[in-house]
């Protein structure tokens, strides 16, 4: 990273990314949902994708998600932004529904704080209704960087979502606050193996042991597994050997605009 880019990032972090700048970006349609394809491990067929928010600023250009996503999660506008993402993705995919396979999985990142959003269930229902001809599957990826003291209060919300055909994934499992307690509270359908452990394949034996243990745990509690951040062939081979169900990462595809995602489906599948 160059000195100039470091200065830009420092400027963004310290002076530019504020609640008001986020709201302005939201109002001005600078926040754009992209999709990173998710593949079935052994066939490499695209079975869905993770929705990732991108900020395309008129002055700064592309702003790294690592810089602004933590601000979004703490923003008072987080629920409004989440609702917008569901609507944007649903409407964008609708125009390609004649080329998309049925039962594709679309993963949306949410914080437990999002579960207090009264519109979340409505947004999920509207997304499913918009794309009812391809019967998509919604997967909510629960991610948490800060400890939530009363997770038990979310159990009823989770049950309501799951009763409405919404699946749950624990994101970054084994790091931060995503732990065994979350399995009991959220009753997830997927455990997502963090790229930190994937990066250690072939370099850190403990990373491989941890991946093995997560896979074993997932099987015991009836979850499927997704590995993220897969970039190299040796990582792919190891994860296939461990029978990881799904993968995503630059080895398969970078995040892309929804039009490009629809074209990729035609080419790959």
Average pLDDT reading: 88
* Measured distance between first and last alpha carbons: 37 Å
> For the report, how would you describe the main beta sheet?
8 strands, mixed, barrel
Q: Helical proportion?
A: 40-55%
Number of helices: 11
Return the CATH architecture.
Alpha-Beta Barrel
Under the CATH scheme, which class? Alpha Beta
As for the CATH topology, it is TIM Barrel
What is the ordering of alpha helices and beta strands? HHEEEHHEHEHEHEHHEHEH
Q: Give start-end ranges of low-pLDDT stretches.
A: 1-8
Secondary-structure content class: alpha/beta
Protein name: EAL domain, c-di-GMP-specific phosphodiesterase class I (Or its enzymatically inactive variant)
Domain EAL: 15-269
GO molecular function, one term: cyclic-guanylate-specific phosphodiesterase activity
InterPro entries: Cyclic-di-GMP_PDE-like, EAL_dom, EAL_sf
What do you see in this structure?
This protein is an alpha/beta fold and 269 residues long. 44% of the residues lie in helices and 20% in strands. The chain has a single domain (38-52, 75-268), classed as Alpha-Beta Barrel (TIM Barrel), CATH 3.20.20.450. Helix 4 packs parallel to helix 5. The radius of gyration is 18 Å and the shape is globular. It comes from Kosakonia arachidis.
Task: Please render the helix and strand layout as text.
Blueprint: H1 3-16, H2 19-27, E1 31-40, E2 46-57, E3 61-63, H3 65-74, H4 78-94, E4 105-110, H5 120-130, E5 137-142, H6 155-163, E6 166-173, H7 180-186, E7 190-193, H8 195-199, H9 205-221, E8 224-227, H10 233-241, E9 246-247, H11 258-268
Parallel strand pairs: 2-4, 4-5, 5-6, 6-7, 7-8, 8-9
Antiparallel strand pairs: 1-2, 1-9, 2-3
């Amino acid at each position: 990273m160059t000195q100039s880019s470091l200065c830009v990032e420092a400027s963004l972090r310290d002076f530019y990314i504020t609640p008001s700048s986020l709201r302005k970006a939201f109002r001005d349609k600078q926040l754009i949902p992209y999709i990173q394809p998710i593949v079935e491990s052994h066939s490499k067929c695209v079975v869905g994708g993770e929705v990732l928010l991108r900020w395309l600023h008129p002055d700064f250009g592309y702003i790294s998600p690592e810089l602004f996503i933590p601000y979004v999660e703490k923003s008072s506008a987080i629920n409004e932004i989440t609702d917008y993402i569901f609507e944007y993705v649903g409407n964008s995919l609708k125009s390609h529904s004649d080329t998309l396979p049925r039962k594709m999985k679309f993963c949306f990142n949410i914080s437990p704080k999002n579960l207090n959003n009264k519109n979340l269930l409505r947004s999920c229902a509207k997304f499913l209704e918009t794309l009812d001809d391809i019967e998509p599957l919604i997967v909510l990826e629960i991610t948490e960087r800060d400890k939530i003291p009363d997770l038990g209060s979310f159990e009823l919300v989770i049950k309501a979502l799951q009763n409405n055909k919404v699946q749950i994934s624990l994101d970054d499992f084994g790091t931060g606050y995503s732990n065994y307690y979350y399995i009991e509270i959220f009753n997830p359908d997927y455990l997502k193996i963090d790229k930190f452990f994937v990066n250690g394949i072939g370099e850190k034996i403990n990373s491989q042991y941890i991946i093995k243990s997560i896979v074993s745990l997932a099987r015991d509690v009836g979850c499927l597994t997704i590995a993220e951040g897969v970039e190299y062939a040796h990582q792919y081979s190891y994860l296939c050997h461990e029978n990881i169900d799904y993968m995503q990462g630059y080895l398969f595809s970078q995040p892309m605009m929804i039009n490009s995602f629809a074209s990729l489906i035609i080419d790959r599948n």
